[in-house]
Write a structure and sequence with these properties.
Elements (H helix, E strand, L loop, with lengths): L2 H12 L10 E8 L14 H12 L6 E8 L4 H18 L2 E11 L1 H6 L4 E4 L4 E3 L11 H6 L24 H26 L14 E3 H7 L4 E2 L2 H9 L4 E4 L16 H4 L5 H4 L2 H19 L4
Parallel strand pairs: 1-2, 1-8, 2-3, 3-4, 3-5, 4-7
Antiparallel strand pairs: 5-6
Helix pairs in contact: 2-3
């Protein structure tokens, strides 16, 4: 190599990757944790929290695809579908392929978001599926009777309060909740059928809420193949492919690991939040909510 060629090569390497014609960039967005911010200090996913990251990822012009790394046990069906719809809209507007990579789980709403991918890759031991709808609560009627507590609720509208944990269960309330669940479930099923189509294995009970390993998910057509993000992208776009992680802006309450405890949930809070009893209550309830979602799929 001559001196001029050496200088050209060195100069080329100093250029940002986005300026180099010989470098393929694939933006990577991590979608991790329960879906839906149910508490003030929750780190759950929502469209509002992810919109900026997704927009930045899909508007990198020279990127041939966008990679999404999903690790979620599910959560809000509304937020799940909103995130799914935004991903598909951005993919169509910017003519990008969407490659989804599942880590521990893409279950329930997490799997709904995964269906935004043109291809879905999993680890053999990932958890996928759980195409169903669940509502849960507690009944404390006998407990408050033993404690001598009287429940007082006043409403305008005889159906304003349903499934009150401190009152006996009303059959009409249960029937109404089941009707709502059926509507949401039907929307979920239609979305999966639209996206996965003929890939789904016929005759299997795919839509009854069961979840499977990634290996079984490939057999059932719920996902496409076994693969991790780095190896798959190198095989697809060459060894020199650059993975560009698109991070979200850090707000007042930065995200915490979804599977951590209360101390992890409160990590990064200022002194005023740490000494606020309400913050501890919210953090505790948020942690319980997250752990409940993960425990439903055995994680």
């Amino acid at each position: 190599m001559g001196a001029i060629d050496w200088i050209k090569t060195r100069a080329l390497r100093l250029l940002p990757d986005s300026w180099r014609a010989d470098v393929t960039i694939v933006p990577v967005v991590r979608l991790s944790g329960p879906i839906g911010a149910v508490m003030p200090f929750s780190s759950g996913m929502s469209l509002a929290g992810l919109a900026e990251q997704l927009e930045r990822a899909f508007t990198i012009k020279k990127a041939p695809a966008v990679a999404l790394i999903i690790n979620s046990p599910g959560g809000s069906p509304v937020q799940s579908r909103l995130i799914y719809e935004r991903i598909r809209a951005l993919a169509d507007e910017n003519e990008k392929k969407v490659l989804v990579f599942v880590e521990d789980a893409a279950a329930s709403g997490g799997y709904m978001i995964a269906c935004a991918g043109d291809e879905i890759f999993v680890d053999p031991s990932s958890i996928v599926g759980s195409i169903g709808v669940v509502s849960s609560g507690f009944g404390f009627t006998e407990l408050i009777a033993k404690l001598g507590i009287e429940r007082r609720v006043y409403t305008a509208g005889d159906r304003k309060v349903t499934l009150d944990s401190f009152r006996p269960e009303v059959p009409d309330d249960v029937a109404h909740i089941l009707e709502l669940q059926a509507d949401i479930h039907e929307t979920f099923i239609d979305l999966v059928r639209e996206r996965r189509g003929s890939k789904l294995k016929p005759g299997e009970s795919l839509f009854n809420g069961t979840f499977w390993t990634g290996k079984k998910g490939v057999e059932l057509g719920l996902v496409d193949a076994i693969g991790d993000v780095r190896s798959t992208l190198r095989a697809r776009f060459g060894d020199d492919v650059k993975l560009k992680l698109i991070s979200g802006s850090r707000g007042m309450f930065p995200g915490r690991p979804a599977k951590g405890g209360v101390s992890a949930t409160l990590a990064g809070f200022g002194q005023s939040e740490l000494t606020n009893p309400a913050a501890w209550v919210d953090a505790t309830l948020s942690t319980i909510e997250a752990r409940t979602l993960w425990s439903r799929i055995g994680l």
